[in-house]
Amino acid sequence: AGVAHEINNPINYIHGNITPAQEYVQDILELLDMYQQEFPHPTPEIKIKIAEIDLNFIKKDLNEVIRSMKIGTERIYEILKSMRNFSRFEKAEFKQVDVREAIDSTLMLLNSRMKATTSSPEIRVIKEYQELPLVDFYAGQLHQVLMNILSNAIDALDEYNKQRTPEEVRKNPSQIKVCTKILNKEWVVISIADNGLGMPEEVNKKLFDSFFTTKSSGKGTGLGLSISYQIVVEKHGGKLLCYSQPGKGAEFIIQIPIRQKISQLVL
Ligand SMILES: Nc1ncnc2c1ncn2[C@@H]1O[C@H](COP(=O)(O)OP(=O)(O)OP(=O)(O)O)[C@@H](O)[C@H]1O
Ligand SMILES: [Mg+2]
Predict the structure, then answer these.
(1) Does residue 247 come out as left (phi exceeding 0), alpha (psi in the -120 to 50 range) or beta?
(2) Most informative mutation of 148, 163, 211, 225 for ligand 1 (most atoms within 8 A of CB)
(3) Which residue's CA lies nearest to atom 11 of ligand 1?
(4) What is the Cα–Cα distance from 43 to 256, expressed in whole angstroms?
(5) pLDDT of residue 90
(6) Ligand 1 atom nearest to 226, measured from its CA
(7) Is the beta carbon of 249 within 6 A of some atom in ligand 1?
(8) pLDDT tens across 192-241, in order?
(9) CATH architecture label of 93-264
(10) At what angle do helices 55-90 and 44-53 cross, to 10 degrees?
(11) CA distance readout (Å), 215 to 75, 162, 163, 242, 248
């Protein structure tokens, strides 16, 4: 939270000043136009300067430049907000959690891993959110579970794309589908489904074991899902399931009770 806060102030200076800067620039450009109309025949020095700086291009580009800066600072704002949510939740605080907000800020932090790069295609996120009630949960831990499952999905998609031809990728683009729904009065369900490489039965059986990983050392510790299982099943009395077949992606179902009996909660 400290770092996010530190960054927030200087960003405020930049963001807060962009709009007035844009207005000043606009005014100056209008004044320049007036000059050009009133004095259509500038001196040779001015003519040379105009050509040198490519005035027409500047006029066209300047607004675009400022607009990009604005988008940039807005993006930083959003990232900071997610980071703050994240670290606020980090404290082992038991509270009523907005599941949707938790999913969105986790996705936000993973955004850069899902953008297309020269070596890997874009991963699309499809959201199907049903309105959910607030849920009793250790908020930081819900983030942790979502982070583990979503990062695994991205890993599985990246891995799959390394094995596929661009043609195959184009026909069946990478996606993660996130759904939330109310099961009944007592339970809500979050489903996270990727269309990555999936997994064989042997892997599926060991999925939630501590230190079980199929990733190369340095890449995976094999703890993500066992920790998630502890959080969902043991700490919150929920269910964590996975349906998957090789080549058919994987779907993780997180089923959580809406209310906790406080007396049952142990940290
Ligand atoms: N969405 C998925 N698609 C295919 N395989 C998966 C998926 N999620 C998990 N797995 C398999 O389950 C294994 C265990 O996952 P887990 O998150 O516990 O550990 P990890 O990702 O290997 O390492 P860590 O999360 O500790 O960095 C993975 O190595 C992978 O083989
Ligand atoms: Mg993992």
Answers:
(1) left
(2) 225
(3) 207
(4) 76
(5) 54
(6) 18
(7) no
(8) 999 999 999 999 999 999 889 999 877 788 889 999 999 999 989 999 99
(9) 2-Layer Sandwich (3.30)
(10) 40
(11) 32, 14, 15, 18, 19
The pLDDT assigned to 84 comes to: 67
DSSP the chain: -HHHHHHHHHHHHHHHHHHHHHHHHHHHHHHHHHHHHH--S--HHHHHHHHHHTHHHHHHHHHHHHHHHHHHHHHHHHHHHHHHHHHHHHTT-EEEE-HHHHHHHHHHHHHHHHS--SSS---EEEEEEPP---EEEEHHHHHHHHHHHHHHHHHHHHHHHHHS-HHHHHHS--EEEEEEEE-SSSEEEEEEEE-S----HHHHHHTTSTT---SPTTT--S-HHHHHHIIIIIIT--EEEEEE-TTS-EEEEEEEESS--GGG---
Q: Where are the domains of the chain?
A: 2-81, 93-264
The CA 156 to ligand 2 mean position distance, Å, reads 10
